[in-house]
Structures are given as C-alpha cells and as structure tokens.
Amino acid sequence: MLRAFAIFCFSTAASAQISPGSLTEVHAQLDGPTKCGSCHVFGAGARRFKCLDCHAEIRQRLEQKRGYHARIANRAKGSLDCIRCHTDHYGRIFNIVKWEETRDTFDHHKAGYPLEGRHARLSCDKCHRAKFISAAERKLIRVKDPTHTLLGLNAQCTTCHEDVHRGELGADCSRCHSLQNWKAAATFDHEATRYPLTGRHQDVSCQKCHTDAVSGETHYKGLPFASCANCHKDPHRGAFREASFSGDCQSCHVTEGWKRVKTLSGFDHTRTRFALKGKHSDLDCFKCHKSSDFKQPVAHRRCLDCHQDPHHGQFTHRKDGGDCSPCHNELTFKRSLFTLKEHQQSAYPLLGKHAAVQCAKCHQPAGVDTRYRVPYENCLRCHRDAHASQFRNQPCEDCHTVDGFRPSTFTLSRHQQSRFLLTASHAAVACGECHKSPAGVHPPPPAQFRYEATTCEVCHEDPHRGQFQTAAARSDRSGCETCHNTRAWKETAAFDHSQTSFALEGAHRAVACTECHRPGNLGKSVRAVVFRGAPTQCGGCHEDVHGGQFQARGQTECSSCHVVSKWKLTTFDHEKTSFALAGAHRAVQCRQCHSSKQLISDRLVLVYKGTPTRCSACHSDGKEIALPRR
C-alpha cells in the first residue's frame, strides 16, 4: 500500500494517468496529486465535493435561501449539484462557469430581485459594480478582483442609490417612491404627518419647504411649522403684532390664497367711513393702504382719489368734476351705467338704428384713449361716403334716414324734378338698374348717380352698331328717339320710311321691318340688323322666279312687269316683244302659250323667252295663219 502511494506521489508518468487534466487558472494552486483531497471526498459511497468548504459566500446564501444559487440548486444532490454548472480539469484557460443564459435572456427573478420599472431598462454593469459591494460581503467573496463577480449586492435601495434624506426617513424608500419615477413620491401621504397640506400648500414643491435656505441641504424632520412666519415673511412689517391680532396670519388669511381675506374677528370695514363693496371687497389691503400703518387715513371721497382718469379729463366740464359714479359702480368698471336713456338726454339723442349701435362703434380709441366727446354735425363724421362725393354739397338726410340706409327716400316724384324725367317704362325700372358701378373696374367703385349725358347710349347698348350716329349728330337728342320711345323698344311707329331713299308703297307697307332689314355682319363678328345699306332692288330681297330670263346688265328689273301693290298684277306690254298680240290672242291667258318648263339651277322654271310664234306650235289644225305685223 505504501509502495503504491509512493508511486502515486513521485512518478510523473503515473501522475499524468491519475489526474483527468490540468485545473483552470483560478484553481491552479490546487493542482497536483497531493492536493486532490482539497476538493474531493474519498471513501465508499457516492461522489462528494468540498466546494462549499471554500466558497463560504455561496454556502451562506444557500443556508439563508437567498440569491441565484439558492433558487437553482438541487439540495437533494448536495455538493454533487455544483458540477452541473462548474466543471474543472480542462486546462488553465477553461472557463469554469457554465452560463447557459445571456445578458439579454437572463431572468433576474432567479437572483431574487426582479427588475421592474426603470430598473428593467438598465444594463448589468449599472448595478453590479465593486463600489456597491459592502465590506462585510467583500470579506466572504473569494474572487480577488471584485469587478469580476455578480455577488455582494442586496435589495436595499441605498446599495446603489445615495440616501438624499440622510437616514431621516429610514431605509424603506418604497414608502414614498416607486420604481417608475423617483421624483413623483406618489405613494407618500402628507395627511399622515403632523402638518397636513391644505389649499395652495398642496401645489408647492417639496423642496420649497424642505430645503434649508442657508446650507441648501434637504431635511424632512424637525422642521418648524407652528406659525406661518416659520416659512413666510410678514408683508405687514409687524403692523398686526398687537394683542388684538397676535400676529397670526390665520386671523385674516386662508391657505386657499393669500389675497382671499376673511372677515377679521373684532374688525368690520363697514364701520369705517368707506365700506368695501363690489370689486373693492376682493382687493388686497395694500392696494389702498400703501404702508404698514393701517390707521393712517386714506383719501376716498372721489373715485379719482385712488383711480386714474381713463378718460383724461373729457368729463371735467360737468358739475361733479368728472366723477365716475354717474357711469360706473363698484361691481364693474367696463359695464357702464350710461345707457340709452341717458344718451337721449345728451346733445345727440340716439334714434333709429343708432339706438342699437355698440358704444365702441362711435367712441373709438384715439391712440390709447377712447374719445367720448365726438363731432356729430354731419353723417360723414362717422360714416363712409358711399357715393364717393357725388353729393358733396347735399346732406345725407335728403335721401336717407337713421331708420336705415336703404330704402332711399328719393322718390319718383323727386326724380321728375331732375334733369332726366322718368316716363313710361323708365318709371318702372329699379334704381339699381341705371345707378350701378361702372363695369370692368376692380375694385368696383360706388354706384354712379350723376351723369354728364342723358342719352339712351349711357345706359343702353346700341344694337344698331352706330348705323344712326349721323341722325343723332343732326339733332340735340339721341338717335334712338327717331324710331323708338320709352313705352316699348319694338314700338317704332314714329319712324317715317318716306323720308328715306326707299319709300314704302303697296304691299311693302304691310311687310315687317325684319323681312327686309335682316341680321348681317357689321364687323368684328358681331351680327346685327342692317338698316343702312339695305337693298332697294327687288332682287335684293326677292328670289328671281324666272331663273334669270329677264336679266339685263346682271340684274332683273321686276318693275318692267310687276307693281308693288300685287305681284300677279303685271304691267307687261306684249306689243314691245317680237310677237304682238292681235285679235283673239289678246284674250288668251299667258299660261296657255307659256306652258313649257325648264330645269334652271335645280328649279323647274316656266319659260317665257324662246316661246314659238308659229300657229302650228299652239294650234292643232296644222294650218298656218299669217298675222299682220305692227
């Protein structure tokens, strides 16, 4: 047995066969055949190891059932369970820690401290630092470099965070703060303290009261709060330190607001010579009492003793010297007591629509001041001249009233006194049809009422495109009156056609004007009825039913055969032809001889010229009859 042990201890070759391999760097001092018993327990039975004999920090956590190892260890296996994550004899550079999870996948619940709130977003090295390991924990940890261990931290906030309260409020930060927001202190209830917060105190930040003004340090215990003066300065400079008030702010003020002054016990302002009413009752005392001496008399007989005159002396001419009380009271300054009833007693009573106009419409600001004494001798002092000085020398009242700008009081009877009398249809035309803004001007000017000329062309378009300008130039009137009147445009009975170069005779008298005067092109692609230059020859209006048989010098003179009284009543003289009618021929109707028809210009026309003169052409006995010539 001794021989075998000697061989085991001193033989290099034997040593290589007994050891499974070199130990990792951290266990290198335990390497060698004589030091196996430092980690292994020899003897009969299951394998056992002495891991926890060296790693007291892990043994302590297992016994206290805290930390990561206490949650993952299989207690039934004992020390044998260590090799599930930590194996050795694989060489010096082998990592003895078998870590299956990564930083991103590691479940921190296994460490006994779940990461919640803002902790969940932190990286591992934000908390696992050497400086956060307590001295007691540091003694037990075997890792020489504390930056290489995740042990040594506890769940108390002060492990990582500085205690800004310096131990005044204990170590349990969760009583006031949450993991979501440190500054909110949402769970802290000030009502449970000796100084519940009421009124405006509830809106004050913690630092306002808990910060020492001299040292700048924050304290939460031992703060004085017996009186308001512990935190607030005395704005009255000791004026209320007499026995009747004892200097206690709560005698006059409440925490809902400093300016909300409650009735003082033993002091009633109504017993003074100036009772506080309306807006005065809400004023801060120092608005009137400028000094700390409240017994000093304050001038109050007139409003102007305290208030500036916003009207800058506009009412000083009155008997009361311009005092405010006739128009204002203590309830509100802007709601004047000067109503419509009072205005009717002024130099300018408000009538008609003026009675509904707001004050500011007439009494407008001049710079920063409002003018109340305004000129009013004529309408244009306030109103814009809607007619652009067309009635410069006439007052507005001639046509308008205060009851409304429209309708105008300028009636038809008054129009008859103007330069342009309204007759017939003109009397029924609405004013706006003639008096309107000139077209084509932007922005449109006011409606035109005064005209230099009164001819028809001022309002009406010339449908004849200047054909009768000569007639208008020969008279002092518009040319329209030559043919038309104001009763109706189409009523043209006044026109005398006999004064033209074509007097109407016979059947022409019954023909409508448009039968002869038809639309034509008068230039610029504008079609209008042609009056001047209308044709006077028959062919100009009538179609040549003879197909040009009687043309001479390019036209047919119908008057050679026809008269204007009736087309079929002819004046044709057969004696002037080559076949004079004699004897029984005189009684023969024209169509008995002139019966032949010929197609001329796509029209079947009765032929007159070229009619045969031989008897046999008309008579069927075949015998020629010699007729004497004339």
Quick tags:
630 residues, little secondary structure, two-stranded antiparallel ribbon, two-stranded antiparallel sheet, 16 helices, 12 strands
Could you explain the architecture of this structure?
The protein is largely without helices or strands and 630 residues long. Among the domains are: 2-156, no CATH class; 573-630, no CATH class. Helices cover 13% and strands 5% of the residues. It has 16 helices and twelve strands. The protein has helices at 2-10, 12-18, 51-54, 56-64, 68-72, 135-140, 206-210, 285-288, 340-343, 359-362, 412-415, 431-434, 469-473, 513-516, 538-541, 590-593, and strands at residues 40-41, 48-49, 253-254, 257-261, 365-366, 369-370, 519-521, 527-529, 551-552, 555-556, 597-600, 603-606. Strands 1-2 form a two-stranded antiparallel ribbon. It has a two-stranded antiparallel ribbon with strand order 3-4. A hairpin with a 2-residue loop joins β3 and β4 (257-261). α1 (2-10) crosses α2. The chain is elongated. The chain starts with a helix and ends in a 24-residue tail after the last strand. Residues 1-16 have low confidence and may be disordered.
How would you briefly describe this protein structure?
The protein has 630 residues and is largely without helices or strands. The chain is built from 16 helices and twelve strands.
